[in-house]
Amino acid sequence: MSGASTRPGAQQVNDRLNYLTPTKKPAGWATDAVGRRKRLYDTPKTPYRRLLASGILSDTQQAELRAHHDSLDPVAIATEIDRIQQQLIRLAAEKTRELEREVQAVTAHPNPSGIKLHRRQAS
């Protein structure tokens, strides 16, 4: 299940999403007493659990998935994802400040002390 990826952290994000994050799926519709339709959802499960429950995997494939699932360390995954996110924030910080300065220069109001008003005298 561990594949080579050119994006740092991609495997950790995929593992967290597919093995550790339960999601609910739409299961149908119901109608309340007034006649309004309401969406019904199933019990939240991880994609890993859904795949095991589907019955389409061979015993070997199930064993491989279980072994990979059992090898995962949720705390280490979350820590690594956070580390990469903080690194991205640091790398983007200077560019963000540069863009903010450009926007401020374009949208800045003129200095009112340099504006002269000529008043007409009432006749």
Topology, please?
Blueprint: H1 10-20, E1 26-31, E2 37-41, H2 47-54, H3 59-71, H4 74-107
Antiparallel strand pairs: 1-2
Helix pairs in contact: 1-4
Region (Disordered): 1-31, 104-123
Biased composition (Polar residues): 1-15
Structural features:
two-stranded antiparallel ribbon; single chain; 123 residues; 54% helix
What does this structure look like?
The protein has 123 residues and is mainly α. Among the domains are: 21-72, no CATH class; 73-105. It is built from 4 helices and 2 strands, in the order αββααα. The protein has helices at 10-20, 47-54, 59-71, 74-107, and strands at 26-31, 37-41. The chain has a two-stranded antiparallel sheet with strand order 1-2. β1 and β2 (37-41) form a beta hairpin. α1 crosses α4 (74-107). It is elongated, with a radius of gyration of 28 Å. The chain starts with 9 loop residues before the first helix and ends in a 16-residue tail after the last helix. Residues 1-15 have a biased composition (Polar residues). Residues 1-31, 104-123 are annotated as: Disordered.
Termini Cα gap: 89 Å
- Basic shape: elongated
How helical, in percent, are the residues? 40-55%
Low-confidence runs (pLDDT<50, min 5 residues)?
none
Give me the number of helical elements. Answer: 4
Elements, N to C (H/E): HEEHHH
Report the average pLDDT across residues.
89
**Biggest beta sheet attributes:** 2 strands, antiparallel
Q: What percent of residues are in strands?
A: 5-15%
Rg of Cα set: 28 Å
The count of strands amounts to: 2
Strand arrangement in the largest pleated sheet: 1-2
Q: Structural class given helices, strands, pairing?
A: mainly alpha
